[in-house]
Prior knowledge:
Layout: H1 3-47, H2 51-58, H3 77-90, E1 162-168, H4 172-175, E2 179-181, E3 208-209, E4 212-213, E5 219-222, E6 237-239, H5 253-266, E7 271-273, H6 286-300, E8 306-313, E9 322-329, E10 332-335, E11 337-342, H7 353-370, E12 378-381, E13 393-400, H8 405-425
Parallel strand pairs: 1-9, 2-12, 5-7, 5-8, 8-13, 11-12
Antiparallel strand pairs: 1-6, 3-4, 9-10, 11-13
Helix pairs in contact: 5-8, 7-8
Amino acid sequence: MxxxxxxxxxxxxxxxxxxxxxxxxxxxxxxxxxTAACAAGVRQAAKSFSVTNIAKxxxxxxxxxxxxxxxxxxxxxxxxxxxxxxxxxxAFFGSDALYFDLAGENTGTLELSPKPSPVAxxxxxxxxxxxxxxxxxxxxxxxxxxxxNIYAFDRASVLSGEVGLVPYDMSSKKTGxxxxxxxxxxxxxxxxxxxxxxxxSLPESIQVSSGNMSVTPLVLIVHTHGTExxxxxxxxxxxxxxxxxxxxxxxxxxxVGSVMADILNSSGIPTIHxxxxxxxxxxxxxxxxxxxxxxxxxxxxxxIKYVFDVxxxxxxxxxxxxxxxxxxxxxxLSAQVMLLVGTNEKGADHPDWxxxxxxxxEWQRRAEKDSPGLMRPINLRGASFNEQLAPGxxxxxxxxxxxxxxxxxxxxxxxxxxxxxxxxxxxx
Length: 428
């Protein structure tokens, strides 16, 4: 072959070879840069991972679910319903759940050593609620054995693939906080009414049978999220993703409302307890549905002075554990309680929200006096949570998803006896 032809051919193809080589180098370099960027992103995501942050991005609860307070353009339609049900199955949606990440804010006493051996109580149980659990650890309403640390937690007791039910003291007494303020409202500039704002006449006696009341009611108890339920008794962990939900009103938050209604009625304060679970068909529409229920009751019974929407909270740590908000009340194990006051900050027609604040503050004061450590700080929120419908309206969080039903029932007892005193002392 002609040598000049070979040289010509080689020189002709050299630029193409160089271009291919440069292209390959560029592709490899770009791939390495992209891989490094992805790795950095994964590291950053892992570093800042929080289930509560994920929940915030997925579903802007509660303001977007708060009936008339929903912001235009926020999650709606089929997608919102799908997201809501997804969160429903994971229980990341208590009133406080999306705004409270306990990483680095443990207010209880966490110990990795085994729980101390319980000492037998000195009083005999006088109620099925007071029967000691098989494990020897106190259940809700049980006498707490002398020397028993209710905030001790053995991390080794959490089974593989499960998350812990970790006890915390979230009380206003422990934290030193009067309010948990999720608004931009300066509470130093807010003045609730000096005098207790609600006066009501109490009947000499009441009789309730088959849902019918012999006198006009004073209190209405409803459940916007009636399917909210609790952790199983006698366990320290549950499978990740366990749904603390139930449609059985003997097992969910409706059972807690029944405790409150029974005490009020037996104390001479006529009370209606609506057992409707407003979230059972549509979580997204639950606040609108419960608002309709409240309006119907108020139209039928204008004598109603107090409307209480009873929930259980869902507080999840950044590590995925469920918070078990507990305290000692009257020497017995109890869940802790939070009163939530809605405002007009998000645009609801609710100019008199400070009336509800006055009720919450007085109830909080009495409950803390009767049961020190029972109450969490009063939660102030920008949405109204239907509290604009009647004076004396409050949303009440009894326990959290990490608590048991017996702990929540006992907390409801303590809370309601304080309410009885407040209503009686302010009767006309």
